[in-house]
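Obj.: predict assembly geometry.
Materials: sequence records (below).
Method: joint structure prediction, all chains together.
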Amino acid sequence: MPDILLACANAERIPLADDSVGLILTSPPYNVGLNYEGYIDNLPHDEFVEFNRQWMAEAYRVMREGGRAYIILKDNMIWWFREIAECIGWVFSQKLVWCKPNFIGKAGRISGDWNYMTEDILLFRKGKRTPMQSGFSTTHNWFLETIPQSNFKEGRIHPAQLPLRLCTRIISRTPGEPILDPFAGSGSVVKAANLLGRAAIGFDIVPSVVNRAAIRLRVGGKDGSGGLAGLPMFSAAHPDDDV
Ligand SMILES: C[S@@+](CC[C@H](N)C(=O)[O-])C[C@H]1O[C@@H](n2cnc3c(N)ncnc32)[C@H](O)[C@@H]1O
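Observations (raw structure tokens):
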């Protein structure tokens, strides 16, 4: 079985060495007031943009040359998110779309606008484009997931839990290891990586969230953290910390 790690950490200070991960697949908070146990999902807009700038800079630091980052975002974020990522050094590659059977927020119905039933996935890379690999999925730029997130067969343990199949489809086509999800939530990305035989690291700032994900993945001890034997790049502290 490949190595996986789940631990509590702040994405604004990722506790990994420079150039140590090969692929990122993540979905940051959307700032829509979700009830995230201990995390406030309702920041003033400027602070929210600054938060995203900070963690994307950290993601860039820990990413190896040639690696890709898939960032799943709410549609109203993509307009400024691409710009902040490019200022950091990320190269924008493509926009993918995840179509889902349930909507985010209130239904538009007659009085509002359209029901919001897609999420955008911005694909960035660090440096030159590297070859993709053959996965078990199709290669078009949209993903149709037909199972509502409220009806996960294996149980729903997080309000923003990604469907496993979405993660396996993206990971199976994209090279790079270990895979990092700095906003791991339920651990779907780490679990999908594990199912595909790939090493993965998931961080989340909320200890109880990490614990539940660790139970779902059956890794680690009582504190919810698991080991990543054989990957020497991991250090528990941020490289700037004086320890
Ligand atoms: C959109 S959810 C991710 C859900 C995840 N993709 C899944 O499949 O379950 C965002 C997660 O980011 C976590 N979070 C919020 N701020 C954070 C930070 N500064 N560092 C790390 N995690 C954070 C929240 O606790 C939440 O679990």
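Conclusions so far: The first strand starts at residue 4 and ends at 8.
To do: check interface contacts against the pulldown list.
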